[in-house]
Amino acid sequence: MIHINLICLGKLKEKFWREAENEYLKRLSAFSKIKIHELKEESFNEKNSPKIIKQKEAEKILSILKKQDGLIIALDEHGQQFSSIAFAEKIKPAGKITFIIGGPLGLDESVLKIANLKLSLSSMTFTHQMVRVILWEQTYRAMMINSNRKYHY
Amino acid sequence: MIHINLICLGKLKEKFWREAENEYLKRLSAFSKIKIHELKEESFNEKNSPKIIKQKEAEKILSILKKQDGLIIALDEHGQQFSSIAFAEKIKPAGKITFIIGGPLGLDESVLKIANLKLSLSSMTFTHQMVRVILWEQTYRAMMINSNRKYHY
């Protein structure tokens, strides 16, 4: 059983994204033990500039992250792109993975520099809610690939 | 109002994908008139090799496609990748767009060669159900970008 942590900002607001996540978490439970750390998003206001929001969110992320070991993967639109097979190969040796998905503004440099891998899912910009669901689907796909099981898509 | 056609194989099986599609179709209705042509998937069996399945599916697609004009965009994992902003720029001049999403085996060459653009959403392989939802979200995002409207993600 691989241990997977997800550190993310805010909840999945729409019911269909929550149900999509639940479906993939259910499928992933055959391969992994998953813990989701849903941190509170900072809101925009006079005192909270985008820079300060990212810093405050980074402090919360780092407080969880410092207790983690294993492979740390930060989702970052400027990160590296992988084919599904190469991604499966990348996570294959890991006994523990921590994924980090930032809020709408992305992740602060202080978090990015700690990550072992900065991962981009696409050249396109996705909502951070979609990123969460796509990431679970790709992780499930990776587990299926790594255990030589067929996955109809 | 931009006219958008989607030609695709099979239905969205999971309720959460149907609800996600409905949400984006609702949002897109402010900008566009959409028609979805859901064609019947061919099933694997002794008589239906992957090559024959793709050909049979292509015949069905082409029978709809020959009635279409405007910009024809085929989703293809070996296609071109765009940033969301470049994609918005690409579809901006079009009064009519036809998107084509193949089945699990992808699209036959006879369909791909007719397309004005072969579009890849990611280096990763997504399910064709996810592709459909992501495509609507990116099309909605493009419409928001092209009308200079803010879209929180």
Walkthrough of the structure:
Chains A, B: S-adenosyl-L-methionine binds at residues 75, 102, 121-126. Two copies of one chain form a homodimer. Chain A is an alpha/beta fold. Chain A has one domain (2-36, 48-146): 3-Layer(aba) Sandwich (Alpha/beta knot), CATH 3.40.1280.10. Chain A has five helices and five strands. Chain A has a five-stranded parallel β-sheet, with helices on both faces. In chain A, strand 1 (2-9), helix 1 (15-28) and strand 2 form a beta-alpha-beta unit. In chain A, helix 1 runs parallel beside helix 5 (128-146) and helix 3 packs across helix 5. The longest helix of chain A is centred in the C-terminal third of the chain and has 19 residues, at 128-146. Chain A starts with a strand and ends in a 7-residue tail after the last helix. The relative contact order of chain A is 0.23. At the A-B interface, helix 1 and helix 5 of A face helix 1 and helix 5 of B.
